[in-house]
Amino acid sequence: MDEYNDNHNKTKTKLIKKLISFIIKEGFQQLRMDDIAKTMDVSRATMYKYFSSKEEVIESVVNVFVEYINKLIIQPSEDNESSFGSRFQQLFEQSVILAGYITDVFLKELQVIYPDAYARLKGALYQRELHTIGFYQDGMTSGIFNQINEKFILLQDDVLLREIINIKYLLLNQVSLQQVLHDYYIFKKIQLFKAEKLVIVDDSRMTPIIDHIVQSITVPYKKSTKPA
């Protein structure tokens, strides 16, 4: 029975991830169960083996997001200055991916139609926010980060980051997502770290990280234009 449940849950998650690729751009309010099955690339009969209603589908989407966010708590592997550089880069990667996946379209519809699920998702995001604030405060106390308002840094990610990774912004300014993310990374690094501490950040690690981010948040947008 446990093996059956594990396989069942794994298949559910795979189907939900196919749907996420669509709803992060288009939303879900107008989706019918027929549309959901088509986007998941399965028959209605197969879909109903895993999901009894649209509400259960959206709940499952939120579960995937919440589980991902709950895994984002980063603890230092070493208690030294260089760990602040690697943790900063990890937080940067996470912030971009979350901004790319948990879109305003999705959040607004979730808040109106499924307020309980919205509250769970916002609760998970809030816990990550508290952890991130703690990281910034630790860096300031340790004399590694500049003394700046850590809440402004979070607001910057929530507003500015969402704006610059938007396809409309990229097209209007004739710039690639890779270039925008690289520029934003440099901007945040110089903003956060004291000048004499910039050397602890290994920028060579960021090229593969940014390539991974670009692949993660652009593939869903490409797929969403042609539902399976």
Descriptive notes:
It is built from eleven helices and no strands. By secondary structure, the chain is mainly α. It folds into two domains: 2-60, Orthogonal Bundle (Arc Repressor Mutant, subunit A); 63-224. Helix 5 runs parallel beside helix 11 and helix 10 (177-192) crosses helix 11. The longest helix is centred in the middle third of the chain and has 27 residues, at 115-141.
Defining traits:
2 domains, 75% helix, 11 helices, 228 residues, mainly alpha, Arc Repressor Mutant, subunit A
Summarize the structure.
This protein is an all-alpha fold and 228 residues long. It folds into 2 domains: 59 residues, Homeodomain-like (Arc Repressor Mutant, subunit A); 162 residues.
